[in-house]
Amino acid sequence: MSGDTAPPTAPERRIEWGTIALGAGATLWVAARVSARAAIGVAAGTLLAWINFRWLRSAVLTLEALSKAQAGTEKPNVPSQIYLRFFGAFALLLAAVCASFFYSLFPGAAVVAGLFTLVAAVLLECIYQLARRRAP
Asked: pTM score, two decimals?
């Protein structure tokens, strides 16, 4: 049973597109101000953050569908695929950051900055939601 077939909600779409837009802007800025290598690091971090968001969303939706299907069951069955999605996303991020720091593929700070584009997109969505609720 897979719950990841549900279309993304409007906030999820805004977060995904916000991550991509912020990452593209940051990549262009870093390319102009720092170096092409650092810009590739920011782009790689942004891509990893976006993939992580998609994998975690998929895992949460699948877990939600399973919990609804197994409501009232004393010992629910959680497939190992769910654990793989949760921990696989974090393992991918950890491997990319470690590789950038230890093997100098790209500047580590640039990759981490790219990862934070997702955080910035979530914060912008929070601000949007708060502003929307206050508007008359």
From this structure: 0.81
